[in-house]
Amino acid sequence: MRVDGPVALTIAGSDSSGGAGIQADLKTFAAHGCYGTSVITALTAQNTVGVQGVHACPPEFVAKQITSVLDDLDVRAIKTGMLYDAETVKAVAGLLKTRFSSELSSPLPLVCDPVCVSTSGHSLLHEDAIEVLISQLFPLSTLITPNKSEAELLLSHFGDSTPIHDLEAMLSSAQKLLSLGPKAVLLKGGHHSITMPDIVRIRQKNGCPKIIKHDLPSDNMEILLVGAPNYDDIELVVDVLYQIDGSLTLFVRPWIQSTSTHGTGCTLSSAITSELAKGIPLEQAVDNATMYTYHGIQSATPMGRGYGPLNHFHRFTTILIPQPTPANPYPFTHMLIESNAKEWKEYVEHDFVRQLGKGTLDRAHFIHFVKSVLTNDILHPEMLIVFLRQDYHYLKYYARAYALMPQRLLAAKSTTFGQIDSCTKTISNVLHEIGNHKAFCATFGITEQDLETTNEAGATIAYGAYIIDIGLQGDSTRLMMALMACLLGYGEVGLWLKKQSTLPDTWVKLEDNPYRHWMEEYAGEMYQGAVRIGLDALEACAVADPPSAVRFKEWQAVWAKCTRLEKGFWDMAMELRG
Amino acid sequence: MRVDGPVALTIAGSDSSGGAGIQADLKTFAAHGCYGTSVITALTAQNTVGVQGVHACPPEFVAKQITSVLDDLDVRAIKTGMLYDAETVKAVAGLLKTRFSSELSSPLPLVCDPVCVSTSGHSLLHEDAIEVLISQLFPLSTLITPNKSEAELLLSHFGDSTPIHDLEAMLSSAQKLLSLGPKAVLLKGGHHSITMPDIVRIRQKNGCPKIIKHDLPSDNMEILLVGAPNYDDIELVVDVLYQIDGSLTLFVRPWIQSTSTHGTGCTLSSAITSELAKGIPLEQAVDNATMYTYHGIQSATPMGRGYGPLNHFHRFTTILIPQPTPANPYPFTHMLIESNAKEWKEYVEHDFVRQLGKGTLDRAHFIHFVKSVLTNDILHPEMLIVFLRQDYHYLKYYARAYALMPQRLLAAKSTTFGQIDSCTKTISNVLHEIGNHKAFCATFGITEQDLETTNEAGATIAYGAYIIDIGLQGDSTRLMMALMACLLGYGEVGLWLKKQSTLPDTWVKLEDNPYRHWMEEYAGEMYQGAVRIGLDALEACAVADPPSAVRFKEWQAVWAKCTRLEKGFWDMAMELRG
């Protein structure tokens, strides 16, 4: 997830306890994938119990902060929260008006949350600021988002002291508030007790406003409602959206019994601002934002001694695999290898491999056969022959497992034919490898007939049967882990030996090394090309559907098992089993 | 992800542009799963180009904010950033000292980032504050995190004006800084040009300090390094951690060419604070935090006209399925059903189902057979018989598909035997369903022999073969989607008919309805018990390994296809095909 745009700006107070104000706004912006900026109008010493103090910022410094942000960053939407006093409202409104009317920029979406009083009852807006708010800021606003008491306070300034006691009153109040100048009003519910019959009644009376319901019984979902309360008895929260084009929308959801409501208003308005910054139309923005806020309350754990904050990050989960960097272009494979580095090293730098590199195969040493096996300091031809014979059998299993891959890929929805093509090409590569293998064996006097009639060793069957089993289980990603452990392992062995050969005073012998062909095959262009395709496929697999910890563990288990089985294969050769 | 604890506190300045200061800290806390609180010492009007102004907050109000937070919330770690002037440093240090030495609480981890100058060169700490910082705050600090120029400034106060020009100088400076009182010093690199040979030299000279490397060539990863620069030529960043117990750790990683470095210091220190708040030991905390910051720079997109911010949320991805709520305890199934609501409704409320409910099967109407078929207003016995005969065949496919499930579950690492047990019990339930089916058919004069010899219709083969195919493809989750569409669909049909039967003036007929037994079977306790198990399994599947958009689409495709095939099954009966 890249939280580096679009940019959203909040102009509001600071809440030291982190649940409301610019802190709630920044958390909400982030949760919506927006880059958050913030202009602070006043500091509060505050916690879940109440507001212990307020320090106002000079209005000209508020303006200075706004200028710093707007002059440099491509802000796509703005919200205002606590503006504290008349001078600050004037400074903010004045600056935004100039900006909005300048020919250089078209007006930005502006959400005005007319914060007047904190949840705990502390006044957050001076009495004399209300009129300025209405006359100067509302006309610039795309949306204002008062709650019941804020709406009552705003309307009382026009001599209207009707309490907003029910849904009917909410509708008429929203309409009155709209006449104060903003392009839309979202009058928030939550302080009334409303049930579905109230909404049905309103609907009949008010020319069928649009109703958007969430988390309420839907048609044809009886199986999900067993034991649920009667539909008509569910206590509801209704938010009313009135837009300047006359459209009216009710947002309806269950009321939640919770003390985690500190900063609900800030969160909702900054969630709407985030959605507007992304270019989402107002009604949809409000719909998404109300549900985000609802889940934030629903999933919060009580915190502090009073009204605790919402859980702003309920939609987030962390990804396990880091982003690729120039220094680490294969982060997933890197993690896989690192997850069992010790066994991987034992496999890649196996004594068998070292002795291939040394070319310490001397037929004259046959006399010391038993001794050499015990001390392991010489790779005896017999060891290689055991290996070659068994590897021939193994390659058959390996090709068969690869042949299951196109089947798995074709079964998945997201597969391209290109992937299947590269996969079937890999089967051809394995056949090519078998061809090389046979030719190499012939130099040791082993015929194809010999190879075919050699009994399969336990280690061969174990490894071969395991990858076929994984293939038949049918999960394409786990089959890929099994195949890659082998493909990448031999590629690593090839490059490791090659690297060792370039070191000063290398122990690797190239001249007259009877195994040089084998070594160079795996370090060569063709095999390494296949490794490259394999690496890309592995990384793509992790990027397309980032694994959870559960799935990574499953993948890692297959990878680790194959690493062990590969090592076991070489152990077998060294011990002349088979 | 629940970001509601542990609580971390930052005491620092505000950066209006959101990339540094408490804004960077809050973003970093959130990215680490901590709940962020913030005490503001000063406001800056700032952007990526520079600092345009500073408004200091009265020291006593800084103290008041700290008190508000610590009195109410269970803070687990604190960091300080820009403290601006001597009076503020005194206020913060004095208050923390009192808190830390009170018998009620043991000292909290305190990370002091001695912010002196902004990246853009603006002074953020008064000259006279440095001495107070050293004498009063350092002794309380778990860790101080100066960069090169801050370290030079701090040491110059003791007459030491040696420039920190290389790794050697970093080590000795870190040791000197440690003697100023903190429990550990992290001296940050990034301003030097260091390569691996420098580190090897240091290591030989300084008694082998511990070295933690990241994103650098590791052993046995040659395959990942094709085309990478020579190890010894890579330009490195080294951070030096010196702890009071004498342990020395170097954190080494590649240097990144980037302009996205605004707020790097704030981000690193708050990342360390987050890790300490979670109880992670210091060295590991620093290691994690340096890599978090490194990836933050690496994955950032340029923003603004100067030094842009880091990408703080590079580890995050959003989850598709909302959290369960009391009103929506099955959010995943809810999403599935909603994703093709129209087709689901056509299936569940199919005319065939309605007519079963009406019991409008009248043998006397046989005469109107053709007409009734055309107008579809009567469910003719022939239709039911077509359905029953084909459903018998379908149930065989269904049981076979279910029989593949234990195989799939056993192949997965995370399966419990309980899951497999409940799965095999479902097969017994299907056999029971087949038994009922046969008994019900007998009441229509259809014998088992008849059922067995009935030809399978196209719709039966289509549906049956599809679920077997999905099962053989081997992905257990997609097989589950296929099986659940059928299990849940019939459960919904049963409950929907039952609900209709309770409405006033219901069209459902229970008395003398020859299909009553069939209807009641699906609404009954036994079948609904199976539905409940299915729902729980579906939800558990989405919780254990939350699907990405890619995987949800794959699952949804199987679900939608089965819904269509179910509907096709009833269409077939209505058209007397088969």
TrEMBL record, chains A, B:
Give the matching Pfam families.
Answer: Phos_pyr_kin, TENA_THI-4
GO annotations of cellular component type = cytosol
Instruction: Provide the Pyridoxamine kinase/Phosphomethylpyrimidine kinase domain boundaries.
Output: 15-311
Q: Which CDD domains match?
A: HMPP_kinase (cd01169), TenA_C_ScTHI20-like (cd19367)
Q: Which Gene Ontology molecular-function terms are recorded?
A: hydroxymethylpyrimidine kinase activity; phosphomethylpyrimidine kinase activity
Lineage top rank: taxon:
Eukaryota
Tell me the ranges covered by the Thiaminase-2/PQQC domain, including all copies. Answer: 387-575
Which biological process terms from the Gene Ontology are attached to this UniProt entry?
thiamine biosynthetic process
- Per its UniProt record, what PANTHER family does this chain match? HYDROXYMETHYLPYRIMIDINE_PHOSPHOMETHYLPYRIMIDINE KINASE THI20-RELATED, PHOSPHOMETHYLPYRIMIDINE KINASE
Task: State what protein this is by name.
Answer: Pyridoxamine kinase/Phosphomethylpyrimidine kinase domain-containing protein
